[in-house]
Amino acid sequence: MTKFNVLILGNASAAPTLSRNQTAQLINIDEQYFLMDCGEGTQLRLREHNIKFQRINHIFISHLHGDHFLGLMGLLQTMHLLGRQTDLHIYSCGHVEEIVHVHLKHAKGNIGYPIHYHTVGTDQSELVFEDHKVEVHSIPLKHKIPCTGFLFREKQKPRKVNPEGLKKYKVPRFEIARIKAGEDFIDAGGNTVPNDALTFAPDASHAYAFCSDTAYLESIIPIIEGVDLLYHEATFLEEHRDRAGQTLHATAAQAATIALKSRVKKLIIGHFSNRYSDLELLLNEAKSIFEATEIAEQDRCFDLLKSQ
Ligand SMILES: [Zn+2]
What we know:
The protein is α/β, with parallel strands linked by helices.
């Protein structure tokens, strides 16, 4: 794998402002694009970053509050106007298909490419997408309406061969694929050579977890444990914890506590209430519990393959 990064296209909650767009992130895994949420104006944010819309084949919508999906209809329409032919997949626990159909029905419009709607359950984490390199799992969250985060995990890589071991035990070339897959080798004399005499451990696989919107929820910890990068919403400061409780959102301290208990490598926080103009307050609150925290600043790209 040569690329695994997360571009923050917006980090606002509720209404967009001139400096903060609503939630949307573009996840690039080896040049395969995954769009995570699609707040209002996302297509303009993509244009600003010179992202070709037609390269996005998978869109994940966490839930149907407007600040997470109001940009979807516009993006689907622009893809159509640009002549898209290729299939598009949309993953959500909400009724996205119904909303798109109502819009097209009353606009007497159509979309000229196939859209596949994948319904994501909210009872437990499930595998929602996989190919030869990556798996995406849902992360059931606790919010006012059904809501899921998503975990993007690079598949385990093959073991690396130890050239000296191969030479020592005279391993023929045609056996190497099996040995990389972890199998032992039986030599010409019928002796078993253990795999770890022939290989080294594979390079680490990387993972990114997106968790928004949610109240403080410890049941996500086993799902996101040890990820390289966790995005967790931090809509409020602790001083507004009551408000967080009423709206089923998290505070910066709660996001940091989840990061700490999940032993993630790094936390980025976002989805800030517009009442805060100074985001340092949220950052400092989180850092007092989990030092490796940063703001999910709009337009910033977080690279999982670089130590951060
Ligand atoms: Zn919400």
